[in-house]
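G., the chain you wanted modeled:
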Amino acid sequence: MAKRLFDVLGAAAALLLLSPLLLVIALLIRLDSPGPVFFRQERVGRFGRPFRIFKFRTMQADGAGLPLTVGADPRITRAGSWLRRHKLDELPQLIDVLRGTMSLVGPRPEVPRYVALYPSALRDRALAVRPGLTDPASLHFIDEAAQLAAATDPEREYIEVILPAKLQRAAQYAEQASLASDIGVLWRTLAALLSRSLQ
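Predicted structure as tokens:
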């Protein structure tokens, strides 16, 4: 109950404070390339329930391919590259937090394609909590796209190396999370993003 209240108050406050920035980003996306401002994609939420996530669109509207971003992906727009670097494309997920399909902190929601590969021993544990905007695995793999770009087979690298590590951390989070630890993750996330913006 306390976590949900924290999520609602935090998301509402963030949307209110960031509304000018969100409007500028929306305008930038519309001026940069044709297509909608938001990108909606099916993800797997708590208890395995599917939902459609909100993100700012960072790729060409007709872009197709793997649900992975590999290095300097040619599908990424000019505005999208900047948004992705600073993780600003994730801000619309505050709407998902208010809707109750996501939390401020929790395992990042995966696409069904990769959830289908979860081993049964970890699946229920990892999906026992609402997915979040950030979590310990997100911080550990903050440069995931670069790691995939360095791999001979990016999807195999993701499935065999990154996904199992993320899943272990997701299961650990679900079992050990507290409001205090969530606040710690949010603080470390803000510090990491600030550091990236200064580089």
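The chain has nine helices and four strands.

Shout if anything looks off.
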